[in-house]
Write a structure and sequence with these properties.
The chain is α/β, with parallel strands linked by helices. It is built from eleven helices and 19 strands.
């Protein structure tokens, strides 16, 4: 860098194009730390905003920095920070809540209406940059045996972990995961971590299903080749699954989900549909007294996820399929968008010289 107080930042000034710009390195406030980023994952929301310039009714109307799955090394600390120090490697939890609303007071800070969440409109600040100044309370120290590459995977893993926690899934239960993309696989890994071994994963892409097998799925179903509901019923010997997780955001799988559950089962919704709408078999949900749960992001589980990765209970690296240098971020984003059949998680190596 020509100026040691400047950093490279990938800015989306127009849909589908990154411009590398020089911006001032932020100065951490009293309760913040400055993190030199190493790896940042590409989320589905990043690729959607990049390709389309909007998510639902939220449109990008000004220059935007994408990326909210970061990990790196602390290079400076604010004067009030006592639990972290320069040189600590951290996974950065990207949302900072207000701590004042009723949801924050209840501990449900993921429901905070005033959360400042990187690269989530209306917030246009993101992590495809070399440094971020972030609340120290939301920077989680990584153990020596957890790399910053794995640290960048904690965010999507936290989503799956939270979904499993919300569902109440327990040891000995059977489960079906609809969708074997990144979030579906994090649900699978979290189910296995929770002691649920009888997990069936449904998708239409063979490469993704192969990844599910590698990650520990007991059964896989390619729904483009068979009746997925009938196959789930066969695998569960006509009972249906105790828990179903919809992680595809697909209208077809949402309609199928109720018919995959056993009586008294639980359906947990994670995936967004493109329109926000979908048909569901309401009569089946009522007749079988199905419990309906939803999961939005995560709360208070980064330490647990990091510990599970450290212990080897959650093999995070299985998710990382494609890594691109920061200088290749345009190529990396386009690759993630156009190779959904093979890409589980594409990651940008910000500090590729480290």
């Amino acid at each position: 860098m020509g100026n040691s107080k400047e950093m490279k930042t990938a800015v989306m000034n127009r849909t589908g194009v990154f411009d590398i710009e020089m911006r001032p390195i932020p100065v951490p406030k009293d309760d913040q730390v400055l993190v030199k980023l190493d790896y940042v994952g590409i989320c589905g929301s990043d690729s959607h905003l990049f390709a389309h310039g909007h998510i639902g009714e939220n449109h990008v109307t000004e220059p935007m920095v994408l990326g909210h799955e970061p990990a790196g090394t602390i290079t400076a600390v604010g004067k009030n920070v006592i639990h972290l120090t320069v040189g600590d490697r951290v996974a950065v939890e990207p949302g900072v809540p207000c701590w004042k609303c009723e949801f924050c007071r209840q501990g449900k800070y993921n429901l905070c209406p005033d959360v400042y969440f990187y690269a989530s409109l209306p917030v246009t600040e993101g992590c495809f940059t070399e440094y971020v100044a972030h609340a120290a309370a939301f920077c989680h120290k990584l153990p020596d045996n957890v790399s910053t590459l794995e640290g960048s995977l904690i965010e999507p893993l936290a989503v799956g972990y939270h979904a499993v926690s919300q569902s109440g899934a327990h040891t000995g239960a059977s489960a079906v995961v609809l969708g074997a993309g990144c979030i579906g696989l994090t649900v699978l890994l979290s189910l296995i971590n929770a002691g649920i071994r009888n997990v069936t994963v449904v998708d239409i892409m063979p490469n993704r299903l192969e990844k599910a097998v590698e990650a520990g799925a007991a059964h896989i179903i390619n729904s483009s080749e068979c009746d997925a509901v009938a196959e789930v019923q066969r695998v569960t010997r006509g009972k249906g699954a105790d828990f179903v997780f919809e992680a595809a955001g697909n209208e077809t799988t949402l309609l199928q989900s109720a018919n995959m559950l056993c009586r008294g089962g639980t359906l947990t919704l994670i995936g967004y549909t493109s329109s926000g709408l979908a048909k569901m078999n309401i009569n089946r949900l009522i007749d079988y007294e199905i419990t309906l749960k939803t999961a939005f992001r995560y709360r208070s589980n980064y330490p647990s996820v990091i510990q599970a990765v450290s212990d080897g209970a959650i093999p995070a690296k299985k998710l990382a399929t494609d890594i691109f240098k920061f200088s290749e971020i345009q190529k990396g984003m386009e690759y993630a968008i156009h190779h959904k059949d093979t890409v589980i998680k594409a990651i940008i190596h910000i500090d590729s010289d480290a």
